[in-house]
User: Fold Probable membrane transporter protein from Martelella mangrovi.
Amino acid sequence: MPPVSEILQLVGLLAVAGCVAGFLAGLFGIGGGAVLVPVFYQAFAMAGVDESIRMKLCVGTSLAIIIPTSLRSFQSHYRRGSVDMKLLRQWILAVPFGAIVSVLVIAYSPSDVLRAAFAVITLLIGLKMLYPGAARWRLGEDLPKNPGLFGVGWLIGLLSGLIGIGGGTLNNTFMTLYNRPIHQAVATSAGVGVLISLPSFVGNIIGGWGHPGLPLFSTGYVNWVAVALIIPITMLIAPLGARAAHAVSDRVLTAGFGIFLLTISARFFYSFF
Assistant:
């Protein structure tokens, strides 16, 4: 049995991580890995988790937490009739397939690959957020047809699974670039999150099963202390962030999230030196 002090240290660090993630999630309207992964990375580093598995643990744990939030969000949006069910049906194989491929990459690739992927993707999204005219960009008047649509779904599943996010940011960008309303994009992203998180959750448990160096109460690359703490804490703290968000304009909020993503990206790039 590990010392009580080690257990308390991990619990304390993750509780702080949950408060930070919850506030930022409420502030920026993002509940997935874009907030959770970097916060977990710092918490697990302070808890002494080896760098070779730290990022894998962050990604796996983040995706486990996304499952209940995505399911609840999808149910709510579905009742309002705002989900593009036709698109989700077309992606019912493509997105999970991409997520499963991401699990294989996580299991057999060095942690550096995941850190690099997270740094690059958050950099690109952050730059888009900071560009005022990005919301008006269009690639077409309607979504592309197969096989292009299948390929996009596969890519969203792959990239989201690699960096531990629910796919909302990527899917929102894709759908709005093809002239879909942002509210429909957000609603559909909840369903995309379910298609990504469920297979990724199972795959990360199998891929990290019995790996030496995992912290207490971990099953594969999922840490249950983090899961049990983060979900209720983020739900408690997120309204405080949301209250702060309503005190500023949309443009200031978007720019703030862009700066946040660029800062996180710089932090991960710096870790290579």
Observations:
- The two ends are 36 Å apart (CA to CA).
- The chain has one domain: 4-270.
- Residues 4-270 form one domain.
- The longest helix spans residues 51-79.
